[in-house]
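Protein in question reproduced for absentees:

***
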Amino acid sequence: MQERALSVLAGLPADALELGRLFEAAGHELALVGGPVRDAFLGRLSADLDFTTSATPDETEAILARWGDAHWDIGREFGTIGARRFARAGAPDVVVEVTTYRTDAYDPSSRKPDVVFGDTLEGDLSRRDFTVNSMAVRVPSLTFVDPFDGLSDLARGVLRTPVDPRQSFDDDPLRMMRAARFAAQLDFAVDDDARGAIVEMAERIAIVSAERVRDELAKLLLSANPRAGLEVLADTGLAEHVLPELPALRLEIDEHHRHKDVYQHSLTVLEKAIALETGADGPVPRPDLVLRLAALLHDIGKPRTRRFEDGGGVSFHHHEVVGAKLVSKRLKELRFDKATVQAVSRLTELHLRFHGYGDGEWTDSAVRRYVTDAGPLLERLHRLTRSDCTTRNVRKAARLSAAYDDLEERIARLKEQEELDSIRPDLDGTEIMAILGIGPGREVGAAYKHLLALRMDRGPLGEDAARDELLAWWGEREG
């Protein structure tokens, strides 16, 4: 692991090492810290170059002004100054952030620290979230600093706090979310003490802003193994405070096991949906947050709609409609953007639409409506619907897969014939007004909807037939 790290660190931009020499010449310490060091030991060269220094923000700014082509001080109140050195000889731009050593003091009612600048690298490392992020490399000497044995934890794949976890999470409750996120990103286990502290202190996450919680949740979902992080959230009770619909899916299984464990089913659907994401040139490039949110949350209406039927059966009638409303409410509370909220809610509402197609009775009109209702979400809906089949019945799984293959083939044929993505009536608003001799108003909209419904049911009519249908409809209204 050390050899791997040395190999990666040797590939640091020469500009970064030059920056270290400038700080050294000015009598200051400079060290690469946090994620870039951790990633180096994992054999990855991080695009982020985060440094910490003994220099004050003013002293740092003066050095960066000489080193870079541009610099900024947006994070000055936290001791952070940033700079960019533009590309040289075909190499990419080098962007750095340099933060003065800190020893923060926290108000128990807030996660915002009173920033106090420190005077040692070891002290600065002690205030970081986990030991695997509390390692540093001094530059330009490339001397490794690991006061909390983060390298051992990295080798074991364990997330442990550099100080008592209760103190760490009390100081900054968002670190509990970061534990779940790193479990997903790094596929690491949260150590027993830290896990126990999260269980005890989960409700303290309430003082963290919804935006910060959202950002951590999104990073978790966009990681390589979101299931591991979601299990941390659910198993520690943290999800009860940030995404309560997730643990609510742990419905008791009836004694005859006639319905699935909805929680485990949802995690499996998420994994299957991720496997169906495409490369950068495909219709759903990996990682896709909308698809992943929809896969995770598509069944959250089931707890509200569960009914035990006569004979021991269980039903969840209209859970997709109820679920769409719950999705919208939760994502809005987490401050997701409007487009994401609408897309995930719509996919939740549509995820059962396919069922019933397998008997082969769908008309062309039904296929057109399926495509039109999905709109730009069609490719995601394809993947969500396919992923939602988690049955262990091999024959049933094969039948559903073949049915969906057939549906996609029909969509492709109709799309080629009719340009389904942009279905419009055979007459536009201007033509409708001219034929009926009316001006803009509700009647035009009603006529447009009537012709669109005919187009969906019967396919392209042609202008003459559409004109006849419009006049007949208008005559019935007049009568």
Remarks:
- The CA atoms of residues 332 and 391 lie 32 Å apart.
